[in-house]
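Inputs:
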Amino acid sequence: MASVQKREIAPSVSVTQPARKRQRWIGYLFILPWFVSMIWFDAIPFGMNLYLGMTDYSVGPIEQANWIGLENFERMLDDDLFRQSLANTIYYIVFSVPLTLILAFSIALLLNTRIRFLGLFRTVYYIPSIIPVVAASIIFLWMFNARAGAINQILYAIGIDPIRWLTNPDYTKITLVIISLWGFGAQMIVFLAALQGIPEQLYEAVAIDGGGLRARLRHIVIPLMTPTIFFNLLVGLIASFQVFTTAYIILGPNGGPLQSGLFYMMHTYNNAFRYFEMGYASAMSFVLFLIILAFTLLMIWTSNRWVYYGDE
Amino acid sequence: MKEKLVFLGLALIVMLSPVVSPPARAQAQGPDCAGGQEVTITFMNWWGATREPLMNQVIANFNEICPNITVVNAVQSWDGREQLVATAVASNEPPNLIMTSRTETYQFAYQGLIEPIGSFVEASGIDPWSIFYESEIGNQVFDGELYTMPLPTAGGISGLYLYNKEMFRQAGLDPDDPPETWQELEAATAAMTELDAFGIAKLGANILLVNDLSSSFVYWLYTNDGQLYSDDGRTVLFNSPQGVETLEWMVNFVNEYSDGLEAVRDFMAGAPDLTTADFPLFNELLAIEFVNVSAFGHLENTDPEMWADPEMWGVALRPYNADNPNAKSAGVSGLAFSWGYTIPVNQPQETKDAAYAFLEFLATAVDGGCYFLFEQGRPSPVMACNEDPAYYDANPYWDVVLESLEIDVSVSITPVQGQINDILSRAVEEAFYGADAQTVLDRAAEEAQALLDEFWSES
């Protein structure tokens, strides 16, 4: 008699009400560390900053701060250095962000090819991103020195008059933009990762259609890279609005000749820690937050028109 | 030369021996060592590099008197100093003793963050006004209360200059007759400055602190019989006719004899101070540099060969405007370089007592501040310390140094001085870029006066 194999059928998983509650509780437990740190390190400081921005807080016990409403925000309208520092920052962003993006993208394209010593090149291009900003800034300070700096010595050797990179107000910002390109490695790595995710078949399709490198770039690479370009653009923009360390080290707290390199964060820092105008500095920080938020929302809104996510 | 250096070193050790050997005090009475209880205090300061071992020695000397007080010498980096000092003093657990500039002391005193030391001084029984130069201890008084004691001197910061005698000889100038007036300084600079394709190759005199144009202007202002503020510190006076004349002279000097502000900044950018061996004054590239009294210690450490030979370097007083009959050489005290050691309020009484005990030793004791400053070749704010004949042996120009202290004028400042410095710096810089001196000074004076009025109205 043929034996009938008895099939074990797993009982259907039915999640009871208490179990579901327990699962939910475990989920909350997992996000608790992040949640606590978000409250402690982001939400509370943000709220405090907003509150302090409406006080005359200087330094010391917060109870000494007097509520002055929107006075700090009104003061910005009359503050010449507020306008100048904002203008300097926007100038920096306009040049630094796109140039860094183009450089990072270009180098990533080159490093995405099959050439010898590829690993070495990738390492070499990425290394600048992990060098401490202070050390790099001091090196650049020397390189751009008008007398002894390597840049002017090279320019002079090829017949170009030395340029006062850091002491002529017409050159300070553009010098800082050039220096900012040094840190393109982080964006390059992101681009490289995205480039390697493009399916090979798409390139083959272009080749079959008779397309060359230019067609590959225009019809395959750039469209598929738009989410990464968008990401790097957004991150670069936010970081550039907060440009501080390099400019502070190279040009000093007042931003060099005629405050030509006084950026928004430096003006905020000066008010906070050199003048002890913490209330005003807090208000400036909040305004910077609003500016960055506005730019971010604008970019997200426009991204619908140019960012391709593949599922559209 | 080697033997000469060894001999000099030995001579210095012999000279110093009475200074460093027995723990002694400028005055007989002293602190009660915080009642004898075991206390540890953190001393936050910026006396790094060659000064750190000296401070450790001072602490060791202090421990011979107060072995129950452990002083942690917390030397900090200059990077981000303002940020660090502000957050430290305002924190719930601040360092027990913090080195602060005069502006910071005033700001923290204004906010009630630091302890006035009048009661400690009274309990100790010393009389600071008879120990220190009046202007030095006066710099540490805010709103009628004494908040700290000075170290190093706030004076001797701007009243003198260091010059390279060899460059004078090369230019055919008499190295023993350095410039005494603005006009002589112009002639000397014209004779010694050389330009090349990169700008200045050799500079006769650098009359600017390239990153602090405000102080540069104020220092020259006082050699033209001008004043920063009225004596009560309530009225801005720097836009006076003397102020305008001073600024016009500075601009003309730099443009005429130094190839302009940018060239000077580029020239000085390579070697920011005397702590670097390639400082142009040590290498016959800069003839005259206006320095503070810390220069002697730096010179000794950085270029011992030059230090050892007074025929290679000299010291003279800051030149004055000979066209102004009321002008004379002068220095400014208490404006940009005036340090004290403050006791934050947020700490238990026993650490406050211990912090004061160390402060008093550091500032007044012969084997405290006197030793610490002598080792750096700089004068002390304690009058008695500077009378030590060893100073004359160690520094051939000691009489000029003391003269520079005597010609110092103490300026009144308020907690808003940091902002006023920046306002004035902007005005001075604009003048260097072609703006009218009277216009920029008037505008700066208006802004500065508004800040002062606001401060005094709230005080």
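The CA atoms of residues 56 and 354 of chain B lie 17 Å apart. Flag for discussion at group meeting.
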